[in-house]
Design a protein that fits this description.
This protein has 110 residues and is an all-alpha fold. Helices cover 65% and strands 0% of the residues.
Length: 110
């Protein structure tokens, strides 16, 4: 990702950044570039329209299912009633935690 970010940043100023350009930029912030990956990146992107590549990538990502609905299902099935009892339990736990912190001498600013 660092190599790609450096390439994209340098492409704003120069049409086809070289390996030396990228190595120099990364070296200024203390990052050593892997020469094998760098050469592969440059050979893959050299002469291509970056905005077109980014658009193609966005289209491909849009077709990938994100799984948002599946992630919400376990939370709903976790046994928490819809009546809103879970927040009350969280409040009690928070109060108990605060009290236990005070018991241990951590309530220094009270």
């Amino acid at each position: 990702m660092k190599l790609i970010a450096a390439y994209l940043l340098l492409s704003l100023a120069k049409e086809n950044p070289s390996a030396e350009d990228i190595t120099g930029l990364l070296g200024k912030v203390g990052i050593e570039a892997d020469s094998e990956r760098l050469e592969k990146l440059i050979s893959e992107l050299n002469g291509k329209d970056l905005s077109a590549l980014i658009s193609e990538g966005q289209e491909k990502l849009a077709s990938v299912p994100s799984g948002g609905a599946a992630a919400a299902a376990p939370a709903a099935a976790g046994g928490a009633p819809a009546g809103g009892e879970a927040p009350k339990e969280e409040e009690k736990k928070e109060e108990e935690k605060e009290e236990s912190d005070e018991d241990m001498g951590f309530g220094l600013f009270d």
